[in-house]
Design brief:
With about 350 residues, this protein is α/β, with parallel strands linked by helices. About 45% of the residues lie in helices and about 15% in strands. The chain folds into 2 domains: about 1-160 and about 340-355, Rossmann fold; about 160-335, Rossmann fold (3-Layer(aba) Sandwich). It has 14 helices and 13 strands.
């Protein structure tokens, strides 16, 4: 079977595309990737042996565009839809799987006009603008959050197995990791500076991902405080899972990949949703966990040192059965996600597509 995977733009979407591409390959199917020259698509997949062929269109997002900019974006999308249809014919495509992001637009829309089965992976608790529209035409929509649509199929989130393999049930707090993402999060970085000395005084190790753009500033601030040598500070690390595995508690944004990676590893978190995320989706991602008592959610403008230290105290409370709270939350986080999300999705795409032949 010949399958197109389309979408990307950011690491969360692209990580899913990679996981699904690997799964289709392992099942003996041919995979084509269609993305954009904008965003990170080309950096991830240009020349990748994962795909039989990669195509990168000259497209940009349409949402929030106005006036002439909107006209240009729509024109680029239209031209790319025509190109996608030609690619479908050239490679005799049997199914299109969209992982979201603006670069998914042309191939996903072209699949509708070409009467090729369209499948969608929605990574967040709240659908993006494109997926809201495309779901009406999709054969199935996959996701790991709670949705009620008729064609929605709930699966485990597609993660690399190492997040499960290196996971553990936490029983005490010796290390806290702060994750602002590879691009950093200035508000979170400034917050770590506020609490660092207090945490160190309590004997808690600090691991801090501050992002490339803020690395020098944060490094200088730690140096001024005289604690630089006591902090494991880094901007970006491809082996982030190893750092997550060291930690007992996390303070993090609530992107879809992040919340599920932490769950797979059994790492309780204080979630600080990015306040400007489309549709406030990070807030709703975090709610999936905090509604079940699996972590704590606080808005960025309400974040304070008191919030963090109260959370750390709560995690060390012991219930009537003598079980420490952090152990209970950690174990329940691990049980919320299972391995094999990519396998579940790939097999369903193949099964549904073969039924249409």
């Amino acid at each position: 079977m010949n399958i197109v995977i389309t979408g990307g733009g950011t690491g969360g979407h692209l990580a899913i595309a990679k996981a699904l591409g690997e799964e289709f390959n392992s099942l003996g199917h041919s995979v084509i990737y269609i993305g954009s020259n904008a965003g990170q698509d080309r950096d991830w997949f240009e020349g990748s042996p994962l795909f039989e062929r990669c195509y990168f269109f000259d497209t940009t997002g349409v949402v929030n565009k106005k006036g002439f900019g909107l006209i240009v974006s729509l024109y680029k999308q239209f031209i790319s839809i025509i190109k996608a249809k030609k690619i479908f014919k050239l490679h005799k495509i049997n199914a299109v799987l969209s992982v979201g992001g603006f670069s998914a637009g042309p191939a996903a829309l072209a699949s509708i006009g070409s009467k090729i089965p369209l499948f969608i992976h929605e990574q967040n608790a709240i659908k993006g603008a494109l997926n809201k529209y495309l779901c009406n035409f999709a054969k199935a929509t996959f996701g790991s959050f709670s949705h009620t649509e008729n064609n929605y199929i709930k699966t485990s989130y597609p993660l690399r197995n190492e997040f499960f393999a290196k996971g553990r049930v936490r029983k005490e707090i010796n290390c806290v990791i702060f994750l602002g993402g590879s691009q950093g999060a200035r508000a979170l970085n400034d917050f770590v500076i506020l609490v660092a000395k207090n945490l160190l005084a309590q004997g808690v190790k600090i691991i801090h991902q501050c992002g490339k753009g803020d690395f020098e500033r944060i490094k200088d601030l730690y140096e001024t405080l005289g604690i630089l040598d006591s902090i494991e500070l880094f901007d970006f690390d491809k082996t982030l899972v190893d750092k997550i595995a060291q930690a007992d508690v996390c303070v993090s944004r609530a992107g879809a990949s992040s919340v599920w990676e932490l769950a797979a590893n059994g790492l309780p978190a204080l979630y600080i949703p990015y306040p400007y995320a489309a549709g406030d989706h990070q807030y709703y991602n975090a709610l999936e966990f905090t509604n079940d008592g699996l972590g704590k959610l606080v808005r960025q403008n309400e974040l304070s040192p008191e919030v963090l230290f109260e959370f750390l105290e709560e995690l060390q409370e012991v219930d009537e059965n003598g079980i420490i709270k952090i152990k209970d939350i950690s174990a329940r986080l691990k049980s919320k996600i299972t391995q094999g999300g990519a396998t579940q999705i790939a097999k369903k795409v193949i099964e549904e597509s073969e039924c249409i032949k």
